[in-house]
Write a structure and sequence with these properties.
The chain is of the alpha/beta class. The chain is built from 5 helices and 8 strands, in the order ββββαβαβαβαβα. One of its GO terms (molecular function) is phosphatase activity.
């Protein structure tokens, strides 16, 4: 079945930091892809993230985010990094249950009149541990482990058979 929705984890999937909820204001912008908080914690967006997100949007895919972070921190970081505009639905929670977050994304899309089945979804996360409950509770979501199943973001386009 055709993938219509691509859902990303954030930490260690889109950028190199493991927990953006730790970041404290003020945030200093080092460059378009790198920031630093007042305590010297740095975050760098992985190579190819922007071009991959742009290509996914160009191909009319719906982009979601399911991340274990405080919602206000997620929104703040996405805004500072100018990545917010790529995501149609963002679910950021202070708990690790990705299957619940993906359910929320499916429900939000349904509220917008977009019907999506689990087999229409690709979920990309750096931790395979989340996939079991996704499959158990949601069904045949295509789960991809970042850095194991694929080694760079442009490979997402190849998995979806999109030209990059």
């Amino acid at each position: 079945m055709k993938i219509k929705v691509v859902i990303f984890d954030a930490d260690k999937t889109l950028w190199d930091h493991y927990n953006i909820s730790e970041f404290e204001e003020p945030i200093k912008i080092i460059n378009r892809d790198e920031i630093e908080d007042i305590k010297g914690r740095k975050l760098k967006v992985f190579p190819e993230v922007r071009s991959t997100l742009e290509e996914l949007k160009r191909n009319n895919l719906i982009l979601g985010m399911a991340t274990w972070n405080y919602p206000e921190k997620t929104e703040r970081m996405l805004g500072i990094l100018n990545l917010r505009r790529y995501f149609d639905v963002i679910v950021s929670r202070d708990f690790p249950f990705k299957f619940i977050m993906i359910s929320e994304i499916i429900n939000e899309l349904k509220n917008r009149g977009i019907s999506v089945k689990p087999e229409n979804i690709m979920f990309i996360d750096d931790r395979r541990v989340h996939f079991g409950n996704v499959w158990l509770y949601l069904g045949k979501v295509k789960c991809v482990e970042m850095w194991k199943d694929i080694s760079c973001h442009s490979q997402i386009l190849k998995l979806l058979e999109l030209n990059s």
